């Protein structure tokens, strides 16, 4: 699990393989399921960190050679304020259309503080991997079917949570501007 999560997070695309494997481990070997989830969290953090560092180095080189345009400056400001939300959502939701690697690369290139980046990845992966493990243990053999049948409901709940978080950040920003 550690190696597969590292490879997936570092850039080798393994869509839904590790999520399915984690649920299968939870249904067949519940005594070692949480250990597997922990190894998945650490492997994913290490892989995302490797991709983040590579993007930080490459992004630094790119930004040194490019002239700063108004659009790129606006993107930098936006990403510095809201970018980690775009990292959190695909890190916590196991659906293919959400491109985590693009946002990890953006976070590295935009020089997001490493501790903040790793904290977001850690929280998202703990929720995802331990949640899948819990569901696998609780539902047994029907866990994969449950997750498949309720994928969009789960995504909807996560989206609502993110929208609430974004609304709170905007409210806080407006409140800080008036003070």
What's the quick description here?
The protein is mostly helical and 179 residues long. It contains eight helices and no strands. It has helices at residues 2-10, 17-28, 33-65, 70-92, 100-109, 114-139, 143-149, 151-178.
Give a verbal description of the structure.
The chain is an all-alpha fold and 179 residues long. It is built from 8 helices and no strands. The protein has one domain. Helix 3 runs antiparallel to helix 6, helix 4 packs parallel to helix 6 and helix 4 packs across helix 8. The mean pLDDT is 83.
Helix-strand layout with pairing:
Elements lengths: L1 H9 L6 H12 L4 H33 L4 H23 L7 H10 L4 H26 L3 H7 L1 H28 L1
Helix pairs in contact: 1-3, 2-3, 2-6, 3-5, 3-6, 4-5, 4-6, 4-8, 6-7
